[in-house]
């Protein structure tokens, strides 16, 4: 593996599994599990002889019937539509990659897969199912159905597809021009260059594609946020930095802060038992789990629904303010923190998924009933806008503003001067050109 000596980000890695066969097998398994999941029950609840069931389809439908159509749409997108879309995209990508020369449509599908994969939240949904199950077992007889095990299996096969997919091997099948159409940029053979190589262009003249990782060299200095044409490999727009990164992130962060207060103050659902209503907020749900001696689950919900949103808001605020102030202290820590909140941000959807399941299955009129409340709308907005805020922010802008994004020294020099950065290789017995580039 290769790591950045400035912030320890993983720059490249080598897959040791078959580049096409392994992900294809897992992708086919995911497709079969997904189809079976659509027609399989998740839970069955029995209240004094009255039985209700819930599938992965019923939650979004019931939220729409109760007047929370936007939340139902988000739940449906993240648990129904996006998993199917990303499985179909991966299948098409693998079909294209299995050909001797990659078709022209495959690179665009690769770009869309990268964008949409995060919005497939099957692994978050299954935790929402377990939280809902723990809340129901005190109410009635609850049975787990085959759908729960299908979700668990689907989560594993989709993760295995991603972990065995060797993107660089797939890109090797892409026949591309060595130069851009306008002749201004050329592909830089980074696998044959070192930081001390005389043929290495100045860092201000180099640019890597945000989508496929292809490194380009230009005969002039590259603009910070200006468009530099289309990538010859994946056809995405080439930019050195994300456009309007700071402004967009700050605006979305402000929206998240505004919605965070009502998200925690307003009730997210009302539970009625024997005609007696009882409203519940996010923190009240955590307390109930703790009082029921479900301490691990209470800590999980506390982390996902309270700690993660606060961590995202505080971290992004520090990054935005630090960039505006051109702060040099803590850049390494903030960059690592950015990668952390980028990974864990979507796990806050656990409570939203739990509410969608309870609303769908607990319909017993006077005996027991669960209704969604406005708090869930604000909470969902907080989760979504903070995810977009993280995506909008470019952590490299912190280093740019602080003047710490200068020329990259050789690895030995970089180890002595961690402020300037470089590339280090650890545990690697293979050449750099066999590695898969991560986000550049």
TrEMBL record:
InterPro entries assigned to the protein according to its UniProt record, in alphabetical order: PqiA-like, PqiA-PqiB_transport
Source species, domain of life: Bacteria
Keywords for this protein: Cell inner membrane, Cell membrane, Membrane, Transmembrane, Transmembrane helix
Segments for region (Disordered): 402-440
One Gene Ontology term, aspect cellular component: plasma membrane
Residue ranges of the TM segments: 20-43, 71-95, 116-133, 139-160, 246-263, 297-322, 343-364, 370-390
Location of the protein in the cell: Cell inner membrane
Record has Iron-sulfur as a keyword: no
Principal localisation: membrane
UniProt keyword Zinc-finger present: no
Name recorded for this polypeptide: Paraquat-inducible membrane protein A
Organism of this sequence: Asaia bogorensis NBRC 16594
